[in-house]
Amino acid sequence: MDDGPSVILTAFLTAVLAAAGTVYAIERYHLLPPRGPAVVEVVVPDLRGATENDARTNANAAHVSLFVASREPSTEAKPGTVLRQSMIAGQRVPRDFPLSVVLAEEVPKVPGVTGIAVADATQRLEKAGYQLQVTATVPHPTLAQSVIIEQSPKADTVQPKGGTVMVQVSAGPGDVELPKFVGVGVNQAKTDLEKLGLKPTVRWVAMAETPTNVVLSQKPAAGEKVKPGTEIQLTVCR
């Protein structure tokens, strides 16, 4: 008689009973550690464009932990609002997941310092993150000594902090040494003379094969010293 099927059946029943006994022993004597609670997931909110306070409120409501990673200048977003976030909105993450954001900061602009004394201008620029450099001291018919006549870059120019603002300072009323204007465009020459407190007058001439709207001669000549308010004649070809 073939005992093969009986042997197989016996082995199968033995295995089943052994497995059942193992399960009973594990449950009866707590041989395995208890299972942890199921992970709760939440959805990342879209915080872009929100103010910092609104972003924190929305993050709390969505059960994510918000922290500000950095701030950077931006012309695309209002200062103090969320420029970007570390996780894309709509993604599922574990509850209280740390979500970082970058807040927009106002783009740095050069303050205006013309018409004020060098000492006050220095403080104003340093407070805004810039340095002052005096490039020239020239007489001025109306501005007192040490008052700034003009600046470069001009006020409200966008420039990264740490840059230098170059200024021209008044030496007070006094004789003015005439620069050379021959070869300079008439409009530029007039502007430069007015900045020096002088009065430009133009004598127009017609000359063949001569550049037009360019100073051909000046009176008094370059290098001479004149009083503020002196008329300076510029000869220009039409």
Could you explain how this protein is built, in words?
This protein is an alpha/beta fold. It folds into 3 domains: 42-105, Trypsin Inhibitor V, Chain A, CATH 3.30.10.20; 118-170, Trypsin Inhibitor V, Chain A (2-Layer Sandwich); 176-237, Trypsin Inhibitor V, Chain A (2-Layer Sandwich). Helix content is 24%, strand content 30%. It has 4 helices and 13 strands. The chain has helices at 4-29, 52-62, 118-128, 186-195, and strands spanning 41-43, 64-73, 82-85, 92-94, 97-105, 131-138, 148-152, 164-170, 176-177, 199-205, 215-219, 225-226, 231-237. The mean pLDDT is 88.
Quickly give the structural class: alpha/beta
Beta fraction? 25-35%
Spatial extent as radius of gyration = 41 Å
Shape: elongated
CATH architecture label name of the largest domain: 2-Layer Sandwich
Number of domains: 3
Distance from first to last alpha carbon: 133 Å
Stretches with pLDDT under 50, minimum 5 residues = none
**Number of distinct helices:** 4
Strand order of the largest sheet: 2-5-3
Instruction: State the total count of DSSP E strands.
Output: 13
In summary, what is this structure?
The chain has 238 residues and is an alpha/beta fold. Helix content is 24%, strand content 30%.
Please give the structural blueprint:
Layout: H1 4-29, E1 41-43, H2 52-62, E2 64-73, E3 82-85, E4 92-94, E5 97-105, H3 118-128, E6 131-138, E7 148-152, E8 164-170, E9 176-177, H4 186-195, E10 199-205, E11 215-219, E12 225-226, E13 231-237
Parallel strand pairs: 2-5, 6-8, 10-13
Antiparallel strand pairs: 1-4, 3-5, 7-8, 9-12, 11-13
